[in-house]
Automatic annotation (TrEMBL):
The lineage of its organism: Bacteria, Bacillati, Bacillota, Clostridia, Lachnospirales. Keywords: Carboxypeptidase, Cell shape, Cell wall biogenesis/degradation, Hydrolase, Membrane, Peptidoglycan synthesis, Protease, Signal, Transmembrane, Transmembrane helix. GO terms for molecular function: serine-type D-Ala-D-Ala carboxypeptidase activity. The active site is at 98 (acyl-ester intermediate), 101 (proton acceptor), 155. Gene3D superfamilies: DD-peptidase/beta-lactamase superfamily. Residues 23-40, 422-436 have a biased composition (Polar residues). InterPro entries: Beta-lactam/transpept-like (IPR012338), Peptidase_S11 (IPR018044), Peptidase_S11_N (IPR001967). SUPFAM superfamilies: beta-lactamase/transpeptidase-like. The chain crosses the membrane at residues 458-479. This is D-alanyl-D-alanine carboxypeptidase. Residues 16-49, 407-436 are annotated as: Disordered. Residues 66-296 form the Peptidase S11 D-alanyl-D-alanine carboxypeptidase A N-terminal domain. Belongs to the peptidase S11 family. It comes from Blautia argi. Pfam families: Peptidase_S11.
Length: 500
């Protein structure tokens, strides 16, 4: 979080930016600088060890090589798809500093209407001396709108804590909600202990987790509007008889040397132990990216610029017209949908990015669950990400047809030997005109019903046939025995002439 004081008791120039952790102060001396000092200043600063740390995304076969950055951990992610384009230590825990306030503001905007009046308590005094604040006093009242701009633009620590207390009753209760939301978003290495980001060993996140939080917050139109605003004026309050001018701390959204075309804002952060942290959103040509750098020194803006340039220059949107895109092996359903032209809209809306000069195969796998189409995309052996969309009526109908054909094919394969003989017999009888029977239709229907029975029909049929044969053999044996007995009786019976 910024180390400067953001309290303004009077009107200040509209575009004036709050001092940054790496900003230079005004010099009072006009004396010529010492020659030796100039020579020292011209020497390039020593490159931090973190500059050469491993970049995970550079190990992906065929992936565009990403730039080295000073930040200890960094990530570049597509806001819409969640696809990760650049990764450096993205699961290593670091202190987030004031980027914590993205979560604080997101929850506050969800729970409290803009026009709500919030009266602050003594909680506003529970911040570190010298940390960023706008001078709110106990008993002072602001609207939720004023608070949101104070949190996201001016990084006001006391406002963050005061809003947390207002929502949760006590700050720790609100922090529990922050941690729960982080888990709900899929964050696995994040734990908050306060709402403003002041340093604590138990207050940490990762580049990946913070990107997920930033992605979720960006879904709010109100959040997007606030973070791109250059400045905001808090009107006079019940205690302070002056306007407060709040300036956006993020330099890439403002005019100046750090301005970045397409920047949509973000959130700065700084503490002595956390270093500089920065979350930045940018959009070009329909692609919206979020960049997170943690544990940076004074290079956080340069690192962010390099990563955003890397993303916009080396990747392009995946479209259905991409001829190299093919269904994954054994994805018969995906192939069926593509053959029938039913995936074009789904793929075009996936927001997936692929290398502009792809060197690996592009494949996808389709899964349909509860009227939802889920497509997993792969670059070679690497999973790029997934897109989830509601299935159209055409896709649902095609799925029914595909599964019906699949069942019929399986049944036909199981009955193949008998079916072949039946087909041969039927073809032979069809070749002999005049030998049709009025029962052909009946027996044909019987055969169709028989083919649709489960596969256990064949063992059952065998048992029935065996039982029938056993019955016939037994019957024949009985008949033969009966005939023998009759024959013996006739032989033993005396003739009438010899009787006395």
């Amino acid at each position: 979080m910024a180390a400067s004081l953001c309290l303004n008791t009077g009107r200040i120039p509209v575009m004036a930016a709050a001092p940054d952790s790496n900003g230079a102060g005004n010099t009072a001396s006009t004396a010529p600088a010492d020659t030796n000092n100039n020579a020292k200043q011209e020497q390039k600063p020593e490159v931090p060890e973190s500059y050469n740390w491993e970049i995970q995304s550079n190990k992906i076969p065929g992936w565009p090589e990403g730039p080295k950055v000073v930040a200890e951990t960094a990530i570049l992610m597509d806001v819409n798809s969640g696809e990760i384009l650049y990764a450096k230590g993205i699961d290593e825990k670091r202190a987030p500093a004031s980027t914590t306030k993205i979560m604080t503001a997101m929850l506050a905007l969800e729970k409290v209407p803009f026009e709500t009046q919030i009266t602050f308590t003594n909680e506003v005094n529970n911040i570190e001396p010298g940390s960023t604040h706008i001078g709110i006093k106990p008993g002072e009242t602001l609207t939720m709108k004023d608070c949101a701009y104070a949190i996201l633009l001016a990084s006001a620590n006391e406002v963050s804590s005061g809003v947390a207390e207002y929502i949760g009753g006590i700050v720790p209760k609100f922090v529990e909600e922050m941690n729960q939301r982080a888990k709900d978003l899929g964050c696995k290495n994040t734990h908050f202990v306060n709402a403003n980001g002041l340093y604590s060993e138990d207050h940490y996140t990762t580049a990946r987790d913070l990107a997920l939080i930033a992605q979720a917050a960006f879904q709010s139109e109100t959040f997007r509007e606030i973070i791109k605003t250059p400045y905001y004026i808090v009107p006079k309050t019940n205690i302070t008889n002056e306007e407060r001018w709040l300036n956006n701390h993020h330099k890439m959204v403002l005019d100046g040397s750090e301005h970045y075309d397409g920047c949509l804002g973000g959130k700065t952060g700084y503490t002595e132990k956390a270093g500089n942290t920065l979350v930045t959103y940018a959009e070009r040509n329909g692609t919206t990216l979020v960049c997170v750098v943690l544990a940076d020194n004074v290079s956080h803006y340069a690192d962010t610029r390099a990563l955003l340039d890397y993303g916009f220059q080396n990747f392009q949107k995946l479209t259905a017209e991409n001829t190299s895109l093919a269904p994954a092996e054994n994805d018969d359903f995906g192939a069926y949908l593509k053959e029938n032209g039913l995936l074009n809209t789904v793929i075009d809306h996936s927001s997936m990015n692929i290398p502009a000069n792809a060197k690996e195969s592009l494949t996808y796998k389709v899964n349909l669950e509860k009227n939802t189409v889920n497509i997993d995309y792969y670059y070679g052996e690497t999973a790029l990400g997934s897109s989830v969309q509601e299935a159209s009526s055409e896709i649902l109908q095609a799925a029914d047809t595909f599964h019906l054909q699949e069942r019929q094919a399986q049944q036909s394969a199981a009955a193949n030997p008998k079916a072949d003989s039946e087909n041969t017999a039927s073809s032979q009888s069809a070749a002999k005109p005049g030998k049709t029977s009025s029962l052909d239709g009946f027996w044909g229907e019987v055969l169709n019903i028989f083919h649709e029975l489960p596969s256990w029909k064949y063992p059952a049929l065998f048992l029935l046939a065996a039982a029938f044969i056993f019955y016939i053999v037994t019957l024949i044996v009985k008949i033969k025995r009966s005939l023998r007995r009759r024959k013996r009786r006739k032989i033993k019976k005396p003739k009438k002439g010899k009787q006395q």
